[in-house]
Amino acid sequence: MKLKTKIYSAILVLTTFVFVGCSDNDGDSIPVIIEKDFPGTYVQVDQMGRPAVNTVFVSGASKDAFNTTTPSNQGAMFQSMFEANLTGLSPAYANPGDKNALGLDAATFTGLLATDVLNVSLDGKTTFFDGTNVLTGRALADDVITVELILIFGGEDGLTNSENPTLSNDNVDANDKEFLTSFPYLASPW
After folding, report:
1. What range does the record give for the signal peptide (predicted)?
2. Model pLDDT for residues 119-134, shown as the tens digit of each residue
3. Which pLDDT tens digit goes with each residue over 62-117?
4. Are 29 and 23 in contact (CB under 8 A)?
5. Residue 10 in 3-state DSSP?
6. Which of 108, 135, 126, 97 is nearest to 185 (CA)?
7. Which of 66, 76, 129, 169 could form a disulfide with 147 if both were Cys (CB 3.0 to 4.6 A apart)?
């Protein structure tokens, strides 16, 4: 008998939701406010403010520490690791005083990268790098990986065909589909 009561109660509750939720007059609908309750402890497990920076410059044994470090503390803790990894990867920094397209030497460049956040300009152009504006945000069409490759491997002139042409370009020059001109702006799925 108790099982039948539970089934009838469940049907009654579900039917109530259907009738309350259905209306042929959208103008008279009553907004339903659902308060979110997220009890528990949350732990940050990954951080990637700038694409590929964490992947390339953080050594495997330090991934967990980097991912859980507050960005304001990352520079002091990880800049020397970033610099060692940069100079080990890139022949563009083989000589002391070598600089990248931003005019930054290895220590200064990795100091910038070690604080892994995506900056956003509130009053200027939003771009990852366009030759003039640097790290002022990220537009959808920005070729972020090629920009990073140029800054890591491209040398002082910032050209993809100068010091290390095979390392300075990912050769992906456009999205596979056009971005939308209105929100949500992302290209529609295949």
Report:
1. 1-20
2. 888 898 888 888 788 8
3. 999 999 999 999 999 999 999 999 999 888 887 888 888 888 999 999 999 999 98
4. yes
5. helix
6. 126
7. 129
The phi and psi torsions of 99 (rounded to 5 degrees) equal -130, 165
CB-CB contact of 143 with 150 (8 Å): no
The single-letter DSSP state of residue 166 is: T
Contact (Cβ atoms closer than 8 angstroms) between residue 100 and residue 154: yes
Amino acid letter, residue 149? L
- Per the structure block, which two tokens stand in for 56? 């390339």
Q: Can you list the pairs that 162-166 forms with residues at least 24 positions away whose Cβ atoms lie under 8 Å? A: 163/91, 163/92, 164/90, 164/91, 164/92
Q: Match 């960005």 to its residue by tokens.
A: 71
Number of residues written out for the chain: 190
Residue pointed to by tokens 């990894």: 85
Determine the distance from the C-alpha atom of residue 142 to the mean position of all C-alpha atoms in its chain, rounded to a whole number: 13
Hey, what are 122's tokens? Answer: 């509130």
Is 174 exposed, middle or buried, given 0-12, 13-18 or 19+ CB atoms closer than 10 A? exposed
Residue 187 and residue 177 in contact, taking contact as beta carbons nearer than 8 Å: yes
For residue 18, the model assigns a pLDDT of: 46
Distance, in Å, from the CA atom of 59 to the CA atom of 85, rounded to the nearest integer, reads 8
Report the amino acid identity of residue 34: I
